[in-house]
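Lecture notes, unit on protein representations.

Consider one protein chain, 310 amino acids long.
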Amino acid sequence: MFIALAMIWSSSFLLIKVGLAPEGTDPAAIGKFDSVSLATTRLTVAALCYVTFVLATRRKFPRNAKTWLYLFIAGLTNNALPFMLITWGEKSIDSGLAGVLNGTTPLFSLVMAHLALGDDRISLGKIFGIIGGFTGVVLLATRSTDTANQANALAGQLAVVVASMCYAFATVFMRRNLRGLDPYVTGASSISMGALILIVISLLTVHPLPNFTALQPEALRAVLALGFFNTFIAYLLYFTILPTWGASRTTMVTYVMPPMSVLLGVVFAQELVDWKLLAGAALILGSVVAANLWKTPLTLRRKEVVAAEA
């Protein structure tokens, strides 16, 4: 299941590219989605599937307003905003580059968890990881100034980085405020909130709305796959693995996604690979590994003291 989850999430960036109208083109004219409609369709499909699953398994949705407010915030920051930002960013950057930049999410999580959670503090290894990771981001950003990489616009890269910040915020927020809720219910409820947010945004901003009967078959298939497999099925796998493997081992899926997304982009979309992409990806991936695995003696000593007191 872990391997399946890694492959499914890694393919998201390529599928977005397949369904999305590139920068400077008319989506209706070429039979593809605009960025908002793509993200909306993806989330709506996932929400319908997830709510059906929760009802079929007789799980109960929360009933108090405070929990639903938290779920709305989770849906906004973990689904609606990042899906829309990544999709918009991929109008002007390669899918593999989007996957690499999305790999910064754990680094942002380290900083936010330190500020918001008392049990997840910054260590020396995490500091080096953060520095190395953002060095990789800066190196990747310089590709937009290269003649051969003009397609990878800086604005598109920044959109994906902001999406990663949204994911990181949502991870910490849900860990702090929704810890006691059934994870499947959390997934269904937050995705539904995200879908409702994007439906409203689509109705207000997308004119005309996409004509699904006029879309290219491959674009429609890609977006339906994003909703069913890459969102609904992927989250089911994630929440199934989580109780058995624990959070630390399960989130190692983020180590696999950047190189796999680059490989898929090269093989299926003929995207360019240069030394900056490889070096930047290596810096980000290595930094995430270092930040999660490298423990300072002080950190280990504190854990020993806590264990002894317990």
